[in-house]
Design goal:
This protein has 13 helices and 19 strands. It is of the alpha/beta class. The structure holds ligand LLP. Ligand LLP binds next to helix 10 and helix 11.
């Protein structure tokens, strides 16, 4: 029987119902420590990209080990602060920060805004001036490299909306006097997510480091270089760059630079520290395929549908060794054909009522959840040894549908009509 650390998943499923996400503290801590250890010879700080998993218990687990936070919205900023991350260990990225979000970041006293366009820089300058402050800024460079990952999660080539190209960045840096509310301290980059090759990193670092030197030589007081996140993990048989090899490339490309480095890993720290536990509802024998219908759906984990992502799916009670497997489609209950976790996946025989674990669901899973088909958000559990804590309870259906309001012209009217009709009858 599969356990999360020392917690039996079948017992947990009985207790809280399915589906639910389950995260392991030990795996979170190990991935953070391993990454920090790989970077130990560099002057580096890790800002956990909380978009990957923004549960405060996860953020707090990493923050206690020394992680700062990389946030992309006012909501994530609030969560990071609420989870105990110090404001001066928060970087704020994103192409569409609103003036209000900028004000929130300034009021909190965050370390740095990673700015992604000229109009954004102008807006941030204005918000800072109104507050009598200077906003600490890292200009995000789009180095125009191919990250060799899925096109939906590639961010560092000229066709992507992220960052500014080198020519424009040079132009902006040359007219910083136009932005009296800005203090340019840093350059940043992030070329994509789930990277499995190291070459795109080297190409991007080389371009940005050369530009960093150019700006330093021109008299800009740049003190930090933010190298983003993006390191891939193994979902199936990918061989992402070894973190030591990655650190070595960083070391080589930044050699001799007097700078503090920043890293923004998300998936690397949390992806393989979580699973989604689901129960088989029915096994349906279609005319050409066998369908295993589970109680998790694309609203709980959309990665297979959105990025054709492959997630390992394992029975929680291991099958007999040497038993047979046969291909099945593992599908959710949502009324769309795309609500399919795996097609023609070899599984040992499974029956209704059995539990399955959808692996590598620690990153971009719960956070991308929705309530499509009026399905409540599934609970999140964090385990530590023999302890299990519900770190987000299951959303109550009342909570979900109770958010709707009827406008005046509909309020009461349907009941009255129904009542009138009954009287007529
Ligand atoms: N920094 C910035 C500026 C980012 O945009 C991202 C991710 C990260 C750091 C963290 O990247 P990571 O280390 O986790 O690869 N929903 C997609 C992934 C989207 C990533 C968006 N940006 C997925 O499920 O694959």
């Amino acid at each position: 029987v599969m356990h999360a650390e020392d917690v039996d998943l079948t017992g947990l499923a009985e207790e809280i119902g399915t589906p639910f996400y389950c995260y392991a503290s030990g795996a979170l801590e190990t991935s953070y420590r391993d990454f920090a250890d790989a970077l130990k010879d560099l002057r580096a700080t890790i800002y956990y990209a909380v978009k990957a998993n923004s549960n405060q218990a996860v953020i707090a687990t990493l923050a206690r080990l020394g992680a700062g936070a990389d946030v992309v919205s006012g909501g994530e900023l609030r969560r990071a602060l609420a989870a105990g991350v110090a404001a001066d260990k928060i970087v704020f990225a994103g192409v569409g920060k609103t003036p209000r979000e900028m004000a929130e970041g300034l009021d909190a006293g965050i370390l740095q805004f990673n700015v992604e366009s000229l109009p954004e820089l102008q807006q941030l300058s204005q918000v800072a001036i109104e507050k009598g402050l200077k906003a600490p800024v890292g200009l995000r460079i789009n180095p125009d490299v191919d990250a060799l990952t899925h096109r939906h999660i590639s961010t560092g080539n000229a066709n992507n909306k992220f960052g500014v190209d080198l020519a424009q960045a040079r132009d902006i840096a040359g007219r910083m006097d136009d932005f009296p509310g800005i203090a340019l301290h840093s350059l940043s980059l992030h070329i994509g997510s789930q990277l499995t090759e190291i070459a795109p990193y080297r190409a991007a670092f080389r371009k940005v480091v050369a530009f960093f030197r150019e700006l330093q030589d021109a008299g800009h007081n740049l003190t930090r270089l933010d190298l983003g996140g993006g390191l891939g993990i193994t979902y199936r048989d990918e061989t992402p760059p070894d973190i030591k090899a990655y650190a070595a490339v960083v070391g080589e490309e930044t050699a001799g630079l007097d700078v503090e480095l920043a890293f923004e890993p998300g998936r690397l720290l949390v992806g393989n520290a979580g699973i989604l536990v689901t129960r088989v509802l029915y096994v349906k024998h279609g005319s050409s395929r066998r369908f295993v219908i589970i109680d998790a759906a694309m609203n709980d984990l959309i990665r297979p549908m959105l990025y054709q992502a492959w997630h390992e799916i394992l029975p929680v009670k291991a099958a007999e060794a040497g038993g047979t497997t046969s291909p099945v489609d593992i599908v959710g209950p949502i009324c769309e054909s795309t609500d399919t976790f795996a097609e023609q996946r070899d599984l040992p025989p499974v029956a209704a009522g059995e539990l399955l674990a959808i692996c590598s669901s620690g990153a971009y899973s719960a956070v991308m959840g929705s309530t499509y088909n009026s399905r409540a958000l599934a609970p999140e559990v964090l385990v530590r040894g023999t302890q299990a804590a519900i770190v987000r309870p299951r959303q109550a259906i009342e909570q979900l549908i109770g958010q709707d309001r009827l406008p005046d012209w509909l309020d009461q009217a349907p009941q009255l009509d129904a009542e009138a009709r009954r009287r007529q009858l």
